[in-house]
Input
Amino acid sequence: MIELTDKDLKQLEKKGISKEQMLGHINTFKEGIPFVQLENAAVIGNGILKFSDAEEKELIAFYDYKLKGLDILKFVPASGAASRMFKALFSFLGAYNPAEETLDAYLSRTNDTDIKKFSEGLKRFPFYQKVMDRIAVKSNSQGEKVFSFISELLGENALNYGFFPKGLLPFHKYESSAATPFEEHLKEGALYAGSNGKANLHFTISEQHEEMFGEEFKASGPKVSADTGITYNVDYSFQKPSTDTLAVDMDNNPFRNEDGSVLFRPGGHGALIQNLNEQDADVIFIKNIDNVAVMKDAKAVADSKKVLAGVLLKEQEKAFEYAALLDKGDVDDAQIEEVRNFLVTNLNVRFSDDFDSKSNTDKIAILKDRVNRPIRICGMVKNEGEPGGGPFWVTNGKGEVSLQIIESAQIDMDNSQQADLLKNSTHFNPVDLVCAVRNYKGEKYNLLKFVDEKQGFITGKTKDGKELKALELPGLWNGAMAFWNTIFVEVPLVTFNPVKSVVDLLKDSHQA
Output
């Protein structure tokens, strides 16, 4: 039995975490989190839809027709810090001395491909001129130039970009200015999330960066509004302390800091289901902060979003009809079969083998449960070697089969059959979602009721030189949406432009 001190209980109270939740975390560590059970990779024709040009035009037109009567929200997870993006540059500053060797000698010695790309593409970065203008002494060699450049870019008493939120870094260089991902999301939002001259955007950010985001909106908001004719309503939320998760030692006891306090860690992006649950709109677009394209690709990106939203509205319309029908009662056998066929064919719902032998009352109860759920339409990109979760048919602990976005860490790679199924995957998840979170009466679902708590992650970490185990909550688009009705749609590669490393900014998709 875990003994908690008065100090521990006060710490829990301050975070908004109950003793029961904490003991639940410990129990999860003790039991472990089971691997998922893959049934098949979702592919085109079996779990992923692919539309013709004519069908896409029809879906875009349908969304545009419905748009004026809709309340639209663009939800952007934006709490990521830029430090990871500059990891290779920080390492370089610690490993290279321009007075002792040339850059070529360093590259030959270390085979540091990121620094090689960075050095060769220096002038193509959107912050190139800003950094060069700040460097007082001009360098004689390329090694000195690159070292001085990175020192100015990342130094605490210089630009300090490594400690910016990723959303506020210069990403794209246009003729007259550089644009941040925040600004690009505003521009993009005008193209598909603007309704009646207004666009609503919600960013989840770190509390320490709220003032910085506010300043950026003051600087870029009026300019983008003037260009687009859209008035922006922008607000923010923070990851809640109550979603932090307990860390334990290797014996599954609470890990204690040097001051004796219990160590809690942020629960990962799955914590944002709480933030999403506080939003309410007819249609919610979800897309990560670093996944932005330059404006030459903006129409293609917007059209793809409209296709997904068109699918959502068409299927929701039908789902609402059937939900109302089931609520009225007096449903005959033919109608039961019609609703069931819709759920199977259109919303990828799978029913147990004994469904046919159940009474009509039980069948109607099951159909009501399955039709009255939030809906997510997820864009899927052809897999070209990029890391990311993939779409699969999965069987959960209750024996229920459903479409899910699965990370490789959730798969038992020692099981050759499961590993082979992973190899069959043709697509991956670029975090491109369009969601409906209301029922046919206009009431918002409590999204926390549709989370599969068994889809979290346990990872190994260290702190103060000691090993610990950390718990990540079920990911926002993974287990946190496990019990939603789900449709996967192939989207073009132009919609996927994440910046995980600074050298990604050298890709064509980020060159204006």
